[in-house]
Amino acid sequence: MKKLIELNVNSEIYEVAIDPHRSLLEVLRETIGLTGSKEGCGLGACGACTVLIDGDPALACLTLADRCVGHEILTIEGLAKPDALHPIQKAAVKFGAIQCGYCTPGWIMSSYSLLARNPKPTRDDIVRGIAGNLCRCTGYVKIIEAIDEAAKEMSASG
Amino acid sequence: MMRLPKFERLLPSSVAEACQMLNQHKNEAEPIAGGSDILVSMKQRVITPKYLVDLTTIPNLDYLSYDDKEGLRMGPLTKIIKLARDAKVAEKYPAIAQAAASVGANQHQFMGTIGGNICLDTRCWYYNQSSFWRKSRAPCIKFNGDTCYIATASKVCVAVYSGDLAPSLIALGAEIKLSSPKGERVIPLSQLYSGDGKVYLTKEKDELVSEINLPPPPAKSCSTYMKLRMREAIDFPMMGVAVNVVLSNGKCSQARIVLNTVASAPVLASDASSHLVGKELTAEVIKEAAEKAYREAKPISDTGGCPAVYRKKIVRVYTKRTLEQVVSKLT
Known about the structure:
The structure holds two protein chains of two kinds.
Chain A: E1 3-9, E2 12-18, H1 24-32, E3 50-53, E4 56-59, E5 72-74, H2 87-95, H3 104-117, H4 123-129, H5 141-156
Parallel strand pairs in A: 1-5
Antiparallel strand pairs in A: 1-2, 3-4, 3-5
Chain B: E1 8-10, H1 15-25, E2 29-32, H2 38-43, E3 51-54, E4 64-67, E5 71-74, H3 80-85, H4 87-92, H5 94-101, H6 106-111, H7 114-118, H8 131-134, H9 165-171, E6 175-180, E7 183-188, E8 208-214, E9 221-228, E10 239-248, E11 251-260, E12 267-268, H10 270-276, H11 283-296, H12 308-330
Parallel strand pairs in B: 1-3, 2-3
Antiparallel strand pairs in B: 4-5, 5-8, 6-7, 6-8, 9-10, 10-11, 11-12
Helix pairs in contact in B: 10-11, 11-12
């Protein structure tokens, strides 16, 4: 039987009717229509579905939507302002840290949570911060450069 | 989209109630903590419980508290990331901090719990795949069949234990509290594992790990954990070594070397460990202990794409390196 729950996604409240065995990723993509978070493996081994729950990175494919009631969910759609991309997104575009784009929302969310905790990460911090996000196109170099630039820009602008 | 099978989530408000629910639904219920392992198994239809008893709805199971007399008390629902980042844990029990930081990737450490990691199911390349692939063969021993595809001559399941925390915890002398409808009991963590890949835990189905405790570390002691894996993140271990060494008057007075992922339980390399006791830990003694650990390790199967023979060789290498590391820190 479907259950009516309220989810706080990107500071908006969504009232959704879901089956209790639905993952957060299914509900985000298929019920709410936020398709930015991707399903890579669906088994918690690639990071493409990474979202933040109360600021902590979580794999939406292994999170029960029903368990997210009362928590704040932040997805890739919640980063940009209506008129401007988030500095990490801007840097990703500038450095061409995107090829197929499938891993992009995941690593951007991971690096967002990294920079929130650690505004001046070393290269090693960055590598560890996105170690749970697989990218099969870029070889990571441009991703790391983009995060590094975004970190500098974000700390410069306070 | 990989979808979960249907289940009902039960919401206990205490450990006792959770045990009661597990008791009531016997083989139809599984406990769920962080969910980063059990939900994978459910998506692959490795297990399809009718009920999930959600332990995260129970209050006060998320804590770390250290005391010089009592040691470290850990709530089973404490996230692994807390262990990985706790300054006290890093100072007193480096092997625990290292093991925690080596679990999966960041995301798994944020989601996974200490209790869940300790109770991690055993794994093998036949059992842990989608039902579609599994269907090409008759069920294995772990699925109540009678063949083991990993070791065809074996009468028992040889799936390997792959949790990262347990070897370090055992090396440091951890005890766990088990709660059930019958009451509570405290056992050494090493006794939680049966050594059988199928029924890999000795606890009853309606028993839950309700606390994990470590004694305070002796004055001149040091521990460390090393993990072999294909990549530096995400992967389960292909092999691991946890060591804990205590020195007094320049000689080793206590030593525990625990091997990971070489059997269906963490393995105390007892010959190698006792070889160190009473001796000065010279390069020669370390080399001998590493050789003994190598002989004690009996990995059967290829795990994570890594041949058993290589994993066995690495036992020798990692035992030597971990011992060298703790000795250099202690002297």
